[in-house]
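Support reply, case 0932

Customer input (verbatim):
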Amino acid sequence: MKNQNKLERFTVFGSKLGMERIEAILKKLGNPEADLKVIHVAGTNGKGSVCRYVYEVLRACGYSVGIYTSPFVIGFNERIEVDGNYISDEDFDICSQQAACAAEQVAVELEDSPTEFEVLTAAAYLYFKQKSPDFVILEVGLGGSGDTTNVILNPLVTAITSISLDHTDRLGNTEAEIAADKAGIIKYGVPMIIGVQHAEARKVIASRAYELSAPLIDATKSKAKVYEQSLSGSRFSVNIASLRYDDITISMPGAYQIENAVVALTIIDQLRQRKYISTTSEAIRKGMYTAKMPGRFEVLSHHSKTVILDGAHNEDGAKRLAESICKLLPDQKIVVITAILKDKDISSIIRSFNQFASLYIATAIDNERALNAGELAAFIQNSEDSPILGVETIVSPKVALERSFELLDDGVADVLIVAGSLYLISELRKYL
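Our regenerated output:
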């Protein structure tokens, strides 16, 4: 892709946390991020969905809104969006070229090259400044304290959706250590919405919020009354502060999406209480229903058979997927196409998948961090409660998909689930 190639010179430097490089780049660009009105969202899982709910509600309320998310599933441009439109190739070329030039100067001055994500984030800030939306929603890329989005000094609201073990090589080996890093987005006096269930992680976040006099609003205390759950989504009501959000319908299925939706509504409620926005019940319901995320429990079909795409690339994500599949699709014969990165907790992910998988097709993705298909197949075969119908090894994801369609058409399986990596989802979604 043309615009993605603009950043290729920086991909060799991997993912490095720290603020010095991005701050230096932005200074050279005139600090385009300084005047943005930002909602800043971190978390191990759920942060993308929360960002999308808030984005669509604000748009339904009549505001101009930008959103910055990662990674992409459909195309590179989807990371940067304003008012329902992805950044154009032309605008991306202009903004990324400016950011790349500044990054090259910084690389010389600091003797430390910026990363692709830092250059991309700088380009996003340039674009948002150019478009001047009323609000910008930033999804943290990795962690919190050292993430490139954390240059925002005065966000309107911050939120942490969940804490679980992921990226332990950079964020810490326990939930508490990871929480400490993600709590780095908390700013002095700025309300922090928390959707975290893990007790020790909650204590760490609460302590940091107290140190910074940041009001802590606990979204987990707002218990939704659920009326319906299906593959089409969920319908519920919930009380947040003194307001009742009644008959909310979301089109992203999965019980965990109700939790994400409550976090998003709590963010909206804080923005309303603090007079940043005005809302109507109709606009909130419309925005919540409109919100969708490709590759996150995304339901498609093949010859009237159900196909579900879900990244589920870490322990908690896999666990949540299993809970939803077991609830929504009991007694179905399910074939799972999977590919997993080496640095993930493969054992925990497969343990969750084994709760619903009848048959696996182990494949591989074009990523140096990926486990090869044969190794993954052997791991599954040797796992506890391995599937009755076994494991097939097909190196090509496209051929694996074609094989899964044969299994569906022949009645060997009722449902296809593609899970284990968003890279895999991105590769296969184009064929679906």
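We compared this against your earlier run and they match. Two observations from our side: The mean pLDDT is 91. The chain is about 40% helix and 20% strand. Please reopen the case if you see a mismatch on your end.
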